[in-house]
């Protein structure tokens, strides 16, 4: 299925009516169109294969850890269509050929999977699986720390509650390797 901007505009207009608003009042007149444009961006990952970014590789002859931490993350929870936001940390041990990908590609990978209706657990695993399947890494750890607005501004009302998820693959299961990765992730808080 592809993105249907007309369908979104129509649905938002209906939504405004259904919540008791007047979609023709001045402040709301452009809202269906603005939301259609905003959602096209926020859900652009649905029509994308984010792992394609990992096709950019370099022969760095590096067989030890590469970790990018504090990648800013904005996604949308699929249960309430409210944002969750925080940071992602992606650390990996390259394959035996020593090839690495561009550092920005890790952030693009995170962003691509984040731009879909998501749950944090699936987002975390999709990033880790792409690193194994498309980059052929020997091991990877992905840690995401995020605040879900559905838990802050409504419902249970717990602003500041931080959800931490991790996905570990391959040699990153090794206790020493994983602890090196975690100390790099936590380093900034020391
Ligand atoms: N595991 C997981 N749960 C999530 C995520 N985002 C939102 N949720 C939860 O999805 C659940 C949906 O629960 P429901 O009982 O169906 O919905 P609800 O009545 O709106 O629940 P409350 O949020 O507790 O008011 C809530 O517990 C949310 O906190 C996520 O990324 N992962
Ligand atoms: Zn939610």
From TrEMBL:
Gene Ontology MF terms: GTP binding; GTP cyclohydrolase I activity; zinc ion binding
EC number: 3.5.4.16
Residues reported to bind Zn(2+): 77, 80, 150
Top class in the EC scheme: hydrolase
One GO-annotated biological process of the protein: tetrahydrofolate biosynthetic process
Keywords on record: GTP-binding, Hydrolase, Metal-binding, Nucleotide-binding, One-carbon metabolism, Zinc
Pathway participation: Cofactor biosynthesis; 7,8-dihydroneopterin triphosphate biosynthesis; 7,8-dihydroneopterin triphosphate from GTP: step 1/1
InterPro entries in the cross-refs: GTP-CH-I_C/QueF (IPR043133), GTP-CH-I_N (IPR043134), GTP_CycHdrlase_I (IPR001474), GTP_CycHdrlase_I_CS (IPR018234), GTP_CycHdrlase_I_dom (IPR020602)
Family: Belongs to the GTP cyclohydrolase I family.
UniProt-listed HAMAP family: FolE
NCBIfam families: folE, PRK09347.1-2, PRK09347.1-3
Protein name: GTP cyclohydrolase 1
Record organism: Actinomyces glycerinitolerans
Protein encoded by which gene: folE
């Amino acid at each position: 299925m592809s993105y249907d901007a007309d369908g979104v505009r129509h649905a938002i207009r209906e939504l405004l009516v259904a919540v008791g608003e007047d979609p023709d009042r001045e402040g709301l007149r452009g809202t269906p169109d603005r939301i259609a444009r905003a959602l096209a961006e926020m859900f652009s990952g649905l029509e994308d294969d984010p792992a394609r970014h990992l096709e950019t590789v370099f022969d760095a002859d590096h067989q030890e850890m590469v970790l990018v931490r504090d990648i800013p993350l904005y996604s949308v929870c699929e249960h309430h269509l409210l944002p969750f936001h925080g940071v992602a940390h992606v650390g990996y041990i390259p394959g035996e050929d020593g090839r690495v990908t561009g550092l920005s590609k890790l952030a693009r990978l995170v962003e691509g999977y984040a731009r879909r209706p998501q749950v944090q657990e699936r987002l975390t695993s999709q990033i880790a699986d792409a690193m194994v399947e498309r980059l052929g890494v020997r091991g990877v750890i992905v840690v995401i720390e995020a605040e879900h607005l559905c838990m802050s501004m409504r419902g249970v009302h717990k602003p500041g509650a931080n959800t931490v998820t991790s996905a570990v693959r391959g040699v990153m299961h090794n206790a020493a390797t994983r602890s090196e990765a975690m100390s790099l992730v936590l380093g900034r808080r020391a």
